[in-house]
Amino acid sequence: MYGAAGAPARSASAPVVRSLRRPPPATGVSFMNNQKQQKPTLSGQRFKTRKRDEKERFDPTQFQDCIIQGLTETGTDLEAVAKFLDASGAKLDYRRYAETLFDILVAGGMLAPGGTLADDMMRTDVCVFAAQEDLETMQAFAQVFNKLIRRYKYLEKGFEDEVKKLLLFLKGFSESERNKLAMLTGVLLANGTLNASILNSLYNENLVKEGVSAAFAVKLFKSWINEKDINAVAASLRKVSMDNRLMELFPANKQSVEHFTKYFTEAGLKELSEYVRNQQTIGARKELQKELQEQMSRGDPFKDIILYVKEEMKKNNIPEQIVIGIVWSSVMSTVEWNKKEELVAEQAIKHLKQYSPLLAAFTTQGQSELTLLLKIQEYCYDNIHFMKAFQKIVVLFYKAEVLSEEPILKWYKDAHVAKGKSVFLEQMKKFVEWLKNAEEGKSNIFNAVCFKMSVNFYIIHGPYVPPCLLFSIGYRILAVIKVVKTRTDILENHHLLPANCFRIIFFNWKFLFALFKVTITLNLVIGSNPVEICSVDSNNVQPLLGFRKMENYGPLQTFMRVLGFFLNIGNFSITHL
After folding, report:
1. Which end of the chain is less congested by CB atoms within 10 angstroms, N or C?
2. What backbone phi and psi angles, to 5 degrees, belong to 117?
3. Distance between CA atoms of 138 and 176, rounded to whole angstroms?
């Protein structure tokens, strides 16, 4: 029997012969190491690539031809276009050719660097740039992009990159094409298809310098605000930290609130102008508070601090009601408060008494005083250790002329906030009752004074004046005194006084003494730049000739000068309104 190779077949019963020779001992050197090392050759080696690793050749032209052919067949019906793009995603590689796809849908074909279309390339009229220039058409195209990206989520990043690229190519597009792209971008930003971070491309130096960025932004924000309100736009900008960068749409020499406001208001975007103005004001407030805290920590004189704050108020158009809140916050942040409730009240009173002149400089209006009261209420509520100190702080400020009666009474009646309401109203109950009684007493004093005034005046200098004229002048003064109870009333009613009436009349000394108690308070709170009156002898008639020079003074100033003379109180300071 022979095997398959022709060798004699071994019998099944034949014994198996095994070699009895022992294997050679291990030498510690492998067989491979004993082989001769091969030298490198200059000829290359061919490696066979597995089929799964073979990559398809990148051919955007062929992809473009397929898309354009399909768009040509669908025509201008955007519903049909959306269906075609949806179905083609299963056949064509959208992930690989995303840039080419969006170039075609926006510009009609693949874009060369700079934003131009190659002459030898196919193009289609079913695109954004070839459509009508109106918001309704752009909204329809936005729906096409929206459906496509919702269907193929992986296109979202590629679409954002495409829009960023298109914004950099704005100079290569016509004005009409830029307007269409701006309206489309605004709609896509409104419906959330795009993120506001794509607007960073508008800050390109060349686009800003040529004015392209600002013009594009006008169309973009118009369509965006048309879809949403300014609050939604502001929220989107805030998320990407662009709410404070809108003025960078203009060159450096035009980056001012005034220029921005004028430009966008004339373009019909008043809401955006007001938003930017508010943002700048907020930024100015933050800077003001920061500088104010630094000045306080350095211990700068109150005079310098007040001057600085008033300059900032004028420069940035910040109302006093806002400033008093900033000053209050700064004052309360300059000290580390005691954690014990029984000690913090005493510490607060001592600290605030020191800063009362600073606070008083910015409570010249009733609304400012009310704002300060609300700030105190909120602070005492938010810091539980101050809950029992509220009434003490208010009384301190009342005595220091920081707060007056009417704002306190208004706060107590209906202007307070809900925070700690029951606790603070209970604390203020007795003080408010005292204020109301004081107001009634003051009213009686005014009536008594006015009665005396109406019958006790005499001609002291000048030509004869008919009694009817004197009574007329006295009646006008009477009307003013009846309404003058607070600083606000003074500023509103002092014009009722005749400018030179005090040149020719003299009051009974009792009336003057009663009136003096009222006017001393007025003298302490009105304006700045004091004007001093020299001490004169009331028995000397010559100084009265000087009253002729008072015709250039305001009515209230004249009143204060004459009052100081007849009371003979020495150097009497008054202030300009």
Report:
1. N
2. -95, 135
3. 13
Residues 412 and 537 in one domain: no
253-273 tens-digit pLDDT: 998 888 999 999 999 999 999
CB 369 within 8 A of CB 386: no
Name the amino acid, one letter, at 435.
L
Residue among 490, 502, 504, 494 at smallest CA distance from 564: 502
Neighbours of 481 (CB within 10 A): 19
Give CA–CA dist 144/130, Å, rounded: 15
State the pLDDT at residue 39.
60
Residue 46's pLDDT is 57
> Is 504 in the same domain as 393?
no
Q: Does residue 423 sit in the same domain as residue 545?
A: no
In a domain, 263, yes or no: no
Burial 44-62 (b: 16+ CB within 10 A, else e): eeeeeeeeeeeeeeeeeee
Task: Give me the number of domains the chain comprises.
Answer: 3
Query: Quick check: is 510 in a domain?
Result: yes
Is the full-model pTM beyond 0.70?
Answer: no
Percent share of the chain, pLDDT over 70: 65
Q: Is residue 6 part of a domain?
A: no
Q: Tens digits of per-residue pLDDT, 487-523?
A: 344 444 444 444 433 333 333 333 333 333 333 333 3
Amino acid at the residue 138: M
- What's the pLDDT tens digit per position in 91-101? 888 999 999 99
Q: What is the mean pLDDT of the chain?
A: 74
Instruction: Give the model's pLDDT for residue 25.
Output: 54
Same domain, 194 and 340: no
DSSP 103-161: HHHHHSSPBPTTSPBPTTS---SSSSTTS-SSHHHHHHHHHHHHHHHHHSTTHHHHHHH
Within 13 Å, how many C-alpha atoms sit on residue 45's CB side?
5
3-state secondary structure of 399: helix
The predicted structure's pLDDT at residue 343? 85
Is residue 187 very low, low, confident or very high in pLDDT (cuts 50, 70, 90)? very high
On the 0-12 / 13-18 / 19+ scale of CB atoms within 10 A, 422 is exposed
Residues 6+ apart with CB under 8 A from 282: none
Boundary-marking domain end, from 198, 223, 255 = 255
One domain, residues 418 and 477? no
Domain finish residue from 221, 255, 289: 255
Domain extent at residue 519: 456-575
> Does residue 29 lie within any of the structural domains?
no
Q: What residues are paired with 507 via a beta bridge?
A: 457
Say which range, 40-49, 149-158, 194-203, has the weakest mean pLDDT.
Answer: 40-49
Give DSSP secondary structure letters for 287-355. Answer: HHHHHHHHHHHHT--HHHHHHHHHHHHHHHT--HHHHHHHHHHHHHTSS---S-HHHHHHHHHHHHHHH
